[in-house]
Amino acid sequence: MNKAIGNKVITDFKKENRKAITKFVILKTLSYIFLCFVAVMCIFFFYLLLVNTTKDNNALQGGKLSLTLSEFFNQNLRNLFTKFKTDFDALKGFRASFVIAFGSALLTCYFSALTAYGIYAYDFKGKKLMEVFILAIMMIPTQLASVGFFQLASQYSLKNRWWLLILPSIAAPSIFFYMIQYLRATLPKDLIESSRIDGSNEFMTFNRIVIPIMKPAIAVQMIFSFVGSWNNLYMPSLLLSDTNKKTLPVMINALQHTSWGNIDLGCVYMAIFLSILPVIIVYLFLSKFIIKGVTAGSIKG
Amino acid sequence: MADVVLKHVEKTYPYVEKKNRKYKKSLNNKAEETSKKSNPQITANGVLAVQDFNIEIKDGEFIVLVGPSGCGKSTTLRMIAGLEEITAGELFIDGKLCNAIEPKDRDIAMVFQSYALYPHMTVYDNIAYPLKFVKYKDPLPDKPDNVRHLKPKEIEERVLAATKLLEIEELLDRKPKNLSGGQRQRVAIGRAIVRNPKVLLMDEPLSNLDAKLRNQMRAEIINLREKITTTFIYVTHDQIEAMTLGDRIVIMKDGIIQQIDAPQDVYEHPRNLFVSGFIGSPRMNYFDADLLYKDGKYKVVLENGYAIIPCEEKQERLRNHRVEAQKVTLGVRPDHISIAEEGIECKVHVSELMGASSHIHAEIIEDKHRSSKNEGQKDIIAIIQNNGTYINYVGKILKFGFNGNVVHLFHKETEKNLEF
Fold it and tell me: Considering only CA atoms, which of B383, B410, B88 is closest in space to residue B273?
């Protein structure tokens, strides 16, 4: 009798178990299908770019979408460096893009961290107002501010200067916001006070204690602002007209707008491909670091 | 080493102003309400965290600030450190007025409750950090006023000396997150003493440790004190730490100093009811009584007629102050209560064996003796020495008598000790 009840319990349990397992498998499969779809959506455009670099101008002008690789990669590369030498000087472009992107990323992060620290660590009148003001700047689109900035630059004949693109990036309200949130989560005020008592002055406290603690936040924001600045077309195209000073996106833009008979879309795609290579490399090598930086501060360690 | 003098030091936190009318109204109501309750800390200008703080701390002295939370002890310490502005009064460190001097220039060190170790630095770097800013005079033949920083080798020597003193030499390469609470505390103390500061400030340094470790570290601080000569100012809410560590104890309540004295004096001669209740564990027992004066002799009579005659020393102090016969609050420490033939009749309901002695909680049978000062404490607590044999008194009715040499008499209204 007891044995029979026991067997029933076991079969019931097995049934339940089987149900749970099927449910789990179905859910897992569905979520994997969804994630695969999203991943394909993300990678598709890069793949399309790669495919287009291997096609010649005629095929591209034809307007038919094809996803198979062709054999014009080397030819496009050669053409880009010979035929379009005047418009696209890769070395100079890389140099200009790198100096501007790295310079502005560095300054943006350092000064955003400094501002965030100032507002976090000190008590002064109007502190709240200042924070709100900085955040309110986020609402103003860059394009709006650029009109006045462009006028100023042309009036004082300051065009074609790299620092003109680096310096204004210091004011970055969104990065400031990220930094202050990070500080609130990770930096106890005791540390600042302790450093003050240990004999360090305010600036040294920031450089020696606060900056190292903020390293993950600074790293991740540096990557983001580097990429943002690297891909930026709008401001550089307004301010840089000298071919020797142009950044990569400006050069690619010039390639696209050469006279009709002269245009070679294969070369344009090749130039785009070359320009995003450093960014891809940065993400590949630093992805772990980026994820760590984005989630850091969420759990106090 | 340096002496520290505080003269009429005050700290007021102003109210945060809001333009909201409703808020102002509620604030006014609040101020009225609290003034009715006569909280001395809430004034029209703001919250008075510390009031009229006066003390002269001698060179090399160990001072403990103690009091319940919110009494202003940490604020006082932070004012000495320079982390908090002084609203009024003067602070002198080593004879120099320090009100407007920045913390970094005061030559002090501080141990925080949270340890405040720099998380990205190793133990070595943490301890060496303050030394990087130390400047000292090194006269050269051509430059008599030459001032220089310490050389790396000198820094290393001093760090090693400090770590040896605290027995943390093997931890030098570790990061703070890989240390236990006790080890972190030692590193924090190491960082504070490595510079030989004039004054060493400690803000509840042991309160994050577990009970056993706390006892151990307390003993180590006593040891440390013998090895290094500096002025210590220590903040705690733990009366045992205060009694065992301090040369003198400063007891505070609501931002006001209640008493500054050596630990034994605080225990034996509390200046007021608050001090008598705050220091000593278990807490002092209080009774309503009459103080009578007849033929040059004082006598304390409880309402059941039980009379206690204070010792001659107390009699004289009372006479010197011309204390009149009046209703008083009688305070008796649990260790000064004994089972006697005459006294207050109580029924024992809890008896805790503590080893050599037992703590007896007994309910007073006649309710009228109980003082309103007992704040909800219904029982008399007595410590009875077992003398080798533990007797369980639970359920029994005993008479407790008080030793006249060690009773304390407090004024009914002012709550001051009548002897002082």
Answer: B410
Query: What share of chain B has pLDDT > 90, as a percent?
Result: 39
Regarding whether B86 and B226 lie in a shared domain, the answer is: yes
Q: Which of B103, B108, B114 sits opposite A190 (nearest CB)?
A: B114
Mutation site for A-interface testing, chosen from B120, B191, B195 by largest number of A Cβ within 10 Å = B120
Domain boundaries, position B341? 273-411
Model confidence at B26, in pLDDT bands (50, 70, 90)? low
Nearest CA in chain B to A191: B116
Residue A110 in tokens: 């350092």
Do B318 and B302 sit in the same domain of this protein?
yes
Q: pLDDT tens for residues A144-182?
A: 888 888 888 888 888 888 888 898 888 889 999 999 999
- pLDDT score of A299: 41
As a whole number of Å, the CA-based R_g of chain B is 26
> Nearest residue of A to residue B133 by CA position?
A199
Count of structural domains, chain B: 2
Same domain, residue pair B99 and B210: yes
Q: Is this complex's ipTM strictly greater than 0.85?
A: no
Q: What is the distance in angstroms between the Cα of A208 and the nearest Cα belonging to chain B? A: 10
- B171 and B155 Cβ atoms separated by less than 8 Å: no
Measured between alpha carbons, how far is residue A120 from residues A115, A117, A183 in Å? Answer: 8, 5, 7
Cβ of residue B180 closer than 8 Å to a chain A Cβ: no
Mutating which of B84, B93, B98, B112 best tests the A interface, going by the most A Cβ atoms within 10 A?
B112
Q: How high is the pLDDT of residue B398?
A: 86
Domain boundary among B248, B268, B288: B268
In a domain, B395, yes or no: yes
- The answer to whether B101 contacts chain A (CB < 8 Å) is no
Taking 90 as the threshold, does the pLDDT of residue B79 lie above it?
Answer: yes
Q: Which residues lie closer than 8 Å to A134 by C-beta, 6 or more apart?
A: A115, A173, A176, A177
Are B52 and B176 part of one and the same domain? yes
Q: Is B198 on the interface with A (CB under 8 A)?
A: no
Are residues B180 and B309 located together in one domain of the fold?
no
